[in-house]
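Handout, page 2. Input:
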Amino acid sequence: MIPQIGTIAPDFTLLDQDGVSHTLSSHKGTNVLIYFYPKDNTPGCTKQACALRDAMPELSKLDAIVFGVSADSVISHKKFAEKYGLPFTLLADEDHAVSEAYGVWGTKKMMGHEFQGIRRTSFLISKEGMIEKVYENVKPELHADQVLADLAHA
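Output:
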């Protein structure tokens, strides 16, 4: 089940693309965008990551950091971040425990096949650690602009 707006964001600790551990609760005092995406180096995920990369100067001005989360490995994240010059943190949720805690792990369909995976969903977390906005069925190329608009009006 997806956490509701106005509730405390589920805390977690995951490794980033450099093998460094990150805990959500240690980022109180900063706006945090957690975006869950299906897979490194796929077309939609690359569009979304590059749009967020290009928006980072504006996101930073709005006191926001970005965590991208997928079930890919630390090594896969490292290659993805380097290939596209991603200036934000990618977190490896290989056992999908965090994706499950946020209600974004589940059955997906593609070309008539059903499988388990991450549904493209993002969460804007306030400086107090509360869920401010939930973005479901994210359109990769439009997502960064939506987040910027929401932060600007917060």
